[in-house]
TrEMBL record:
The keyword Nucleotide-binding does not apply. It comes from Zhouia amylolytica AD3. It is found in: Cytoplasm. One of its GO terms (biological process) is tRNA queuosine(34) biosynthetic process. The lineage of its organism: Bacteria, Pseudomonadati, Bacteroidota, Flavobacteriia, Flavobacteriales. This is S-adenosylmethionine:tRNA ribosyltransferase-isomerase. One of its GO terms (molecular function) is S-adenosylmethionine:tRNA ribosyltransferase-isomerase activity.
Amino acid sequence: MKLSHFNFDLPKDLLAEYPSESRDEARLMVVHRETGEIEHKLFKDLIDYFDEGDVMVLNNTKVFPARLFGNKEKTGARIEVFLLRELNADQRLWDVLVDPARKIRIGNKLYFGEDESLVAEVIDNTTSRGRTLRFLYDGSYDEFRQKLSELGETPLPKYIKRDVEPEDEERYQTIYAKHEGAVAAPTAGLHFSKHLLKRLEIKGIDFAEVTLHVGLGTFNPVEVEDLSKHKMDSEELYIDDKSVDTVNSAKAKKHKVCAVGTTVMRGLESSVSSERTLNTFQGWTNKFIFPPYEFSIADCMITNFHTPKSTLLMMVSAFAGHDLMMKAYKEAVKEKYKFYSYGDAMLIL
């Protein structure tokens, strides 16, 4: 399949600037792969499609306040710094994106905070992901991380043009987020409320958790027509024994295993045994899933609506079938579903 197969017209007004009023009252499109039927529901109706013993796999990564604003030495120019990845905790080295990038050279110093108590020096600007900064800070490592949190903002996606608001801190985070490390939320999980999780639990649905720290590579544009030439950025992934047992036991008993989000699906498919069961995992994955692809672990998935030509749309097309997915997306545009991070959801059965 080619990049052009994943293009469609997406009106700008369908990009969600704000989350739905209540987490579980976003709209839900239900797509049945066997029959091609498409239903229109609310997210909380999800419970009707699952039975006792079914498993939902959640990504418990936690978004950290990765967007900082500093000033360049001498000129005082305002520079946005987006923290991507910690390279070395002892030396306080980070891979970052800077904007505007053309103004930043090796050796430049950036000052953060009104009291300029945090300083960073650019030590490399040749990495594929942007720049490498060394932060200069006198306190302990814990104090340094605390300082980053104080100065940082919730890293809302670039398509959201408004300023970050206080509610974003809570709403751009799943309610089951535990392990800090993501620079973008695993957005399918944003729709789960405490109340809905409780109802699912009472019905007998089991939960397994994986940790995949979402990086910006997930959203990098694909710039090659031949998809086999696209390289995904690596993201850190952990799958423990408990989750492996929960998933494999459900599969053995022919219960449903539902991947909550593309990050979970990629995580699960990154650690498959020769018997097509789940293995434990600790490391990095750069798995890129696009059609045709045979999935081994999950047999249904929850996902948001993705933008044209994105790797996320390619993955859901591989799972649902390309023609059915493009039909569903056409319907979503017609019915004015909201797209992207704060948008509505889809359940693919």
